[in-house]
Amino acid sequence: MSDYQVKTVPTKAFQDQRPGTSGLRKRVPVFQQEHYTENFIQSILSSIPGGPKDTTLVVGGDGRYYSNEVVQKIIQLSAGNGVKKLVIARDIIFSTPAISHEIRSRKATGGILLTASHNPGGPKADFGIKYNMDNGGPAPEAVTEAIFAHSKELTEYKLVDLPEVDLSQLGERQVGPISIEVIDAVKPYVAFLKTLFDFDAIKAYVHQPDVSVLFDGLSGVTGPYARDIFINELGLDESSIQGCEPSPDFNGGHPDPNLTYAHDLVKAVEEKQITFGAASDGDGDRNMIYGAGAFVTPSDSVAIIADWAESIPYFAKGGVKGLARSMPTSTALDRVAKAKGIEHFEVPTGWKFFGNLMDAGRLSICGEESFGTGSDHVREKDGLWAIVAWLNILAAADKKGIKGIKGVLQDHYSKYGRTFFSRYDYEEVDSDAANKVIKELSDLFASSDFVGSSPTATSSSTSFKVAEVGNFAYTDPIDHSVSKNQGHYVTFSDGSRFVVRLSGTGSQGATIRLYVEKYSQDSSEYGRDTQEGLKPLIEVALKLSKLVEQTGRKEPTVIT
Ligand code: VG1
Ligand code: CO
Q1: Do residues 436 and 557 make contact, with C-beta atoms less than 8 angstroms apart?
Q2: Which atom of ligand 1 is nearest to 351's Cα?
Q3: Residue with the nearest Cα to atom 5 of ligand 1?
Q4: Which residue in 219, 419, 452, 454 could disulfide with 247, CB within 3.0 to 4.6 Å?
């Protein structure tokens, strides 16, 4: 050890390293500034509860541009801070849920995840760094705030100068004072999935003559995982996967599985009338389920998985302890929870809020409207898990004569009614204008006669009576920590509502998200187009927030 000198490097603190909804996300040139990345890694290491000394950390990411440079820095800084061992994925390709699983199964101290998720990659695009705890889940606010506080004040960081480590070779080696183990990050995760689901039933289902499958990895991290699942395990042929070669810039695409960015998948599914289409995002924690003529909204997806949980061996065995959704996610899940008499929770946006409930044994299945669905098998949302869960459900439904995605959706609506849901994103809006939109709503909520008033959508002269308003705050039922300012909501007397909040994952300017929801038990509406059904509500939301006036944006950037 004495051969390796720990070097103390003087630095100047940056003031903009506050982790957002899911880690620190900035443009690559920001991370490339001298000391910038080192400072943030040092802040993470210094904020590990109990300190960095003698810890084991799992490291990997979606393989986006600049990943190798950052991993080499992590190795040197970890060595400088007394970390005992780093477990790194071969070529860094490690999906977010698979990292979560690896941390848990190894009982590691935590993990450093290199991803900006669904944001584009490349020299001018986004990079991201996130810390996960020993439960495999994203660091809670107390820890991310400690990282931020540290980053604002640090004056030096510690490293050991080491030669570049070759991350293409499997195996464990000693590099100076630190042990580096390069692992196959795919096999253990796929083996784990096989213990959760009924792969025999899924295999029989996907090989039926009238069933076809197409998965799109959007050139993100899930490619090798999907190949193992769909080709090796389920025995499907090459034509059932696309976009499965991870690329540092996602092949110039936007690795976000929604109707806008996964257009290649949507097009292929419609053209070839594929029964089951699916996609996941850059780091593999999001999913989209889309069959010919049948799109599953993420809000419906989590409700349906909860409703069919008994067909999934993991839940059939362990039971469903509780259900949860993020606040803007539609209330479809709540209706399943009520019907089944299961405890359910509404938490702020971001997966970190589900972890405590899972650790306390009170939550099994949860989801977010942003194409995030998952369970307590890990502590991250899990794209491939959701996709395999759907295949498991379709196999079970098929045996009951309920055919395909459309059949499962119709069956669900006839049991529970239909929740129409849509999100409008206004990306890279001027920050001042975005703040004015929020201020507009705050002022409106403070006025004494707003609750009880009936704003009208002029185009259809539909009016909605305001029943309740607020800025969502959450008290964690387990550790009683309070998270305030989590989104402005207006609920109307017919149960419909809208929510406005600012994104915490953007890297430039501000992104305003507008979420609208309407519930219907009128079966003549079940087949209706979502945007049509929500039109009057959207009009009212835009009017009340003065969004168009304040931002100059007539149309959103993305509608999901
Ligand atoms: C968005 C989504 C949120 C999700 C987060 C991270 O956050 O709305 O539901 O948990 O992204 O997902 P925000 O603050 O931009 O609305 V991922 O796949 O980017 O890790
Ligand atoms: Co993601």
Answers
A1: no
A2: 10
A3: 350
A4: 219
pLDDT band for position 110 (cuts 50, 70, 90): very high
Q: Answer yes or no: is pLDDT of 9 > 90.
A: yes
Q: What is the dihedral of CA 296, 302, 306, 310, to 10 degrees?
A: 60
- Model confidence at 277: pLDDT above 90: yes
Which pair of tokens denotes residue 391? Answer: 């295949």
- Give, in words, the CATH class of 419-559: alpha beta
Residues having CB closer than 6 A to ligand 1 are 21-22, 117-118, 281, 285-286, 326, 349-351, 368, 370, 372, 503-505, 513
Q: How far does residue 112's CA lie from ligand 1's centre (Å)?
A: 18
> Which single residue is written with the structure tokens 């959706």?
409
Task: Give the distance (Å) from ligand 2 centre to CA of residue 255.
Answer: 9
Residues with a known catalytic role: 117
For the domain bounded by 189-416, which CATH number is listed?
Answer: 3.40.120.10
Q: Where are the domains of the chain?
A: 6-185, 189-416, 419-559
Radius of gyration of the chain from Cα atoms? 23
Say if CB 384 and CB 287 are below 8 A apart.
yes
From ligand 2's centre to the CA of 246, what distance in Å?
14
DSSP category for residue 228: I
| CA dihedral for 297, 302, 306, 310, sign (positive or negative) | positive
DSSP secondary-structure letter at 504? S
Q: Is the pTM here over 0.90, yes or no?
A: yes
Rounded CA gap, 277 and 212, in Å? Answer: 8
Best residue for ligand 1 mutational test, from 22, 302, 329 (most atoms within 8 Å of Cβ): 22
DSSP assignment of 65-84 equals TTHHHHHHHHHHHHHHTT--
CATH of domain 6-185: 3.40.120.10
Three-class secondary structure of residue 555 per DSSP: coil
Q: How far does the centroid of ligand 2 lie from the alpha carbon of residue 523, in Å?
A: 35
Name the residue of 283, 346, 349, 488 whose CB sits within 8 Å of the most ligand 1 atoms, as the mutation to test its pocket: 349
Same fold, 6-185 and 189-416: yes
